[in-house]
C-alpha cells in the first residue's frame, strides 16, 4: 500500500520580503505569505488530500503555514510534531544581513559560494550538507515510517530543509540539488511505494 508525502515550503516571511538572510531567526509571515499558505491548503483540499500526521520546524513561519493550510483543509485538529531537525539551514554570521550588503562585505563570489555550494558553510553556519546531516536521520527514522505504513503525511518546513529531503527522496547528486529551487507555498506531493521508491510526483501550482 503506497503512502503520500506532501512537502510545503512556508509562505513568504517578513525577511524574505526584505531580502535578508534568515536561517534560524524567527520572523513571521507577510500578508502575501498568509495568502500563499491558505492557497496551498485550498489546492490540497481540492486535490482530495486528508492527512494522518504533520511535521514542522520550531520556527513560526513554518508553524503558521501549517496552521493556515490545515484550517483550509478542515483538519485543524491534526497531530503535528515540531522538531529542530526541520529548522532552516543556519546562516551563522550572515543571519539578519541584507543579501546585497553581505556581497559588499565579503564579495559576490564568496557569498554565492556560501549560498549555492553543497559543502562550504558561511562563518559559524551550516552548509546544505550540514543541514542534510540533521534532516536525513529525522526523515528516515521519524517521518518515513508513517509514509511506508500507507499514511498521508504533510511537512511544512523551509527551502534548504526541503531541498535536503528532496535530495534523499529523488536520489539527487550534490551537483543536481544545487540548481533545485522550491517555491514558497507550493505543495509537492509524492506517492511513495512500500519499498520507499517514488510512485509519482505532483507539484500543485496555482
Automatic annotation (TrEMBL):
InterPro entries on file: His_Pase_superF_clade-1, His_PPase_superfam, PG/BPGM_mutase_AS, Phosphogly_mut1
Keyword field: Gluconeogenesis, Glycolysis, Isomerase
Keyword Lipid metabolism: no
EC number: 5.4.2.11
UniProt-annotated binding residues for substrate: 9-16, 22-23, 61, 88-91, 99, 115-116, 159-160
Site features described as Transition state stabilizer, chain residue numbers: 158
Subunit structure: Homodimer.
Membership in a protein family: Belongs to the phosphoglycerate mutase family. BPG-dependent PGAM subfamily.
Function comment: Catalyzes the interconversion of 2-phosphoglycerate and 3-phosphoglycerate.
Name the UniProt record assigns to this protein: 2,3-bisphosphoglycerate-dependent phosphoglycerate mutase
Species per Swiss-Prot/TrEMBL record: Fulvimarina uroteuthidis
Lineage summary: Bacteria, Pseudomonadati, Pseudomonadota, Alphaproteobacteria, Hyphomicrobiales
Gene symbol of the encoding locus: gpmA
